[in-house]
Amino acid sequence: MTRAVDRAASPRAALRLRNARIVGRLDVRQADVGVPVFLVGVTITDVLDLTNACTAGITLIECVLPGFHARLLEVRGDLNLTRCRITGPADLRDARIGGSLTLDSATLGDSGTPDDALAAARMTVSGDLSGRSGFVAYGRVWLSAATIGGDVLFTGATVHSSRGPAIDANRLTIAGSFSARYGFTAEGGIILVHAQIGNQLNFTEARISTTGIWALHLGGARVATLWLTFAAPPVGRVRLSGLQADSIFDNPATWPAELDLVGCSYRLLLARSPAPRGSPLPPQSVTVGQRLDWLRRSPDGYAPQPYEQLAAHYRQNGQDQEARRVLLEKQRQRRATLNRPKRIFGYLLDGVVGYGYRPWLAGVWLTAFWALGTLTFTVQPSTPRSDAAPERNPALQSLDLLLPIINLGHDGAWRAAGASQYISALLVLVGWMLTTAVVAGLTRLLNR
After folding, report:
1. Which of 123, 162, 341, 419 has an alpha carbon 20 to 30 Å from 212's alpha carbon atom?
2. Membrane-crossing residues (predicted)?
3. What is this structure's pTM?
4. DSSP secondary structure, 317-356, as one string
């Protein structure tokens, strides 16, 4: 089996075995297997050891074995473990597979052991990594620093991990997509810190839960399109800190209770409603109020960047009013972190000009106090200070008091009497406050 094969004499040479039982240890360590291996319905009583072996291709269909040791394995073609039952760990660390790795309908690990079900750190696969159609793993699927030239396909798969994350894939690199859709379940959470995914990261109708901290950790990851349209809200914290995505699709009905968005950047943010499998997900209307609730789910409190990112998204889509609403809410959240004097001044800016995002409020306040002064000086007329006083005009007198920078010639020419003296003092004080607030608001507006 390990000799060189004359391809001209044996163009279809292969090792084929069906419905057999292999007793004892099958040790192929460091061997060079020059022909493809096909085992169908074979039971192996001891661990299959392919450590540091080199093979043309391996296909195990419906086989049963207690372990699969294949660290540093080199497969020039495909490695196919479809519908296999491997009760012990499958070790593919540092393996190099020239084709695809197929685990469809396979079962890895045992529910009674907390070990890794699939240890494939630093593995390189030129094609796809497929674990679909009822693939089950009892234990961690470890893909840290692995490189996949095609897609990672976990649609309909189930991964149970009683200790640590269900899928641990720090620094995973995928040229295509990571698809964990329709029926996918991860009990233990998913870690994809600093992962690089060329196309989609798709969790449509998936279920993710953990008894630890992270249900989904995408810190520092890069992905073209992210689908967070889960079947139910993830149980545990979802972290998108430092994530870079062109597009994010989500569903407000399945937003997690704790969501960390600090440093998350995106160009397109859209909501999608659930849809039957195979149907396009219909768009869903999300109000700016709902998006603000989305931002407030951070367990670490206020941070400015998520608000600025959401406002930039609205501006890019021509929704200036929504962008101003987000930036106003950012200032209100920031206010809660300030000391008392700054909070008081913040309330003043908010109430008068909405931190510069609602400058029309200053006009409302000015009109209200102008009307109050006009009514006061009409009911209780002022007395002239000299014979040169202009004709009495309660409206101009009130406006002259409200505008401390502009002199209309009525403030100094007429003397308020009785209770109107207090109204005069109030108008002067309010005028200075309004002027200060308006200048601060306009300064903030011009800086933007």
Report:
1. 123
2. 422-446
3. 0.81
4. TT-HHHHHHHHHHHHHHHHTTS-HHHHHHHHHHHHHHGGG
pLDDT in tens, 367-403: 887 888 788 778 777 766 766 667 777 777 777 777 7
Span between the terminal Cα atoms of the chain, in Å: 73
Residues 6+ apart with CB under 8 A from 12: none
Any domain includes 23: yes
Number of domain units in the chain: 3
- 197 shares a domain with 166: no
Q: Is 404 exposed, middle or buried (CB count within 10 Å of its CB: 0-12, 13-18, 19+)? A: middle
Tens digit of each residue's pLDDT (9 = 90 or more) over 164-202: 899 999 999 999 999 999 999 999 999 999 999 999 999
Residues 5 and 149 in one domain: yes
CA torsion through residues 176, 181, 184, 188, sign? positive
Domain that includes residue 63, residue range: 1-176
User: Do 312 and 407 fall within a single domain?
Assistant: no
**Residue 217 burial (CB count, 10 A):** 25
